[in-house]
Design a protein that fits this description.
Helix content: 10-25%
CATH topology: Glutaredoxin
GO molecular function, one term: isomerase activity
InterPro entries: Redoxin (IPR013740), Thioredoxin-like_sf (IPR036249), Thioredoxin_domain (IPR013766), Thioredoxin_ResA/DsbE_sf (IPR050553)
Largest sheet: 7 strands, mixed
Order of helices and strands: EEEEEEEHEHEHEEEH
Pfam families: Redoxin (PF08534)
GO cellular component, one term: cell envelope
Shape: globular
CATH superfamily: Glutaredoxin
Number of domains: 1
Strand content: 15-25%
Protein name: Thiol-disulfide isomerase
Radius of gyration: 16 Å
CATH class: Alpha Beta
Distance between the termini: 31 Å
Strand order of the largest sheet: 1-4-12-11-7-8-9
């Protein structure tokens, strides 16, 4: 059984790696895209650019008793209006940091939407955080890949990224974070989701926690 080691700087030292039987961790490196290497914004989703750095993907779970404080965040949505983490307290929340010209973000988009649909009956909330684009580009991405959940537009002040930085430092895109019902970081995947079943299991673990 393969596992991913947790080594990025600035991350929570209490976190432990995920290497539990029944979770398939595929061989090979996931692609981590540093924010400094973002491509120029474009609504043409057939063109991809930027300086991409290949790194080892990291999957981490934080034991319930060792999680940090709830993370509060909010922002304008690509679909119009605003959203706030206060709206989702009591629900499991999956937060995906992405941008349109990021190849791994494009590759994992179908899995994210599939899991969004799967967990709708359980009340799980999926929310994207677009770290690079304006509404038109984000909307074009959603239309191309059939994404039905909204994204917060965080390209300006980066307030959502700052809200998470003290606990999980999402300095690579994509990064996917599962928040528990109290709004605390329960698990994360840095880099492209290596397999749909990995995120599925992380979500199921938090759903199964007793209140």
């Amino acid at each position: 059984m393969l596992s991913y080691s947790d080594s990025p700087s600035g991350t929570d030292p209490r976190a432990r790696d995920l290497h539990r039987p029944g979770v398939l961790l595929l061989a090979g490196a996931a692609i981590a895209i540093l924010l400094s290497g973002c491509a120029p914004e474009s609504t043409d989703l057939t063109e991809v650019g930027g300086d991409y750095i290949t790194g080892t993907g990291t999957i981490t779970e934080i034991p319930r008793a060792e999680r940090g404080a709830p993370i509060a965040f909010s922002g304008e949505l690509d679909t119009g209006g605003t959203a706030s983490s206060d709206d989702w307290l009591g629900s499991v929340v999956v937060v995906n940091f992405w941008y349109a010209a990021c190849p791994p973000c494009r590759a994992e988009a179908p899995d994210l939407e599939s899991l969004n649909q799967q967990f709708l009956p359980d009340g799980v909330v999926f929310i994207g955080v677009d770290v690079r684009d304006q509404a038109a580009t984000a909307g074009a991405f959603s239309d191309t890949f059939g994404i039905t959940y909204p994204s917060i537009l965080d390209a300006g002040a980066g307030e959502v990224q700052l809200a998470f930085a003290g606990q999980i430092a999402p300095n690579a895109v994509p990064t996917t974070i599962v928040l528990d019902r109290e709004g605390r970081v329960a698990s994360r995947i840095i880099g492209q989701i290596p397999d749909r079943s990995v995120l599925e299991t992380l979500i199921e673990d938090v759903i199964g926690e007793e209140g």
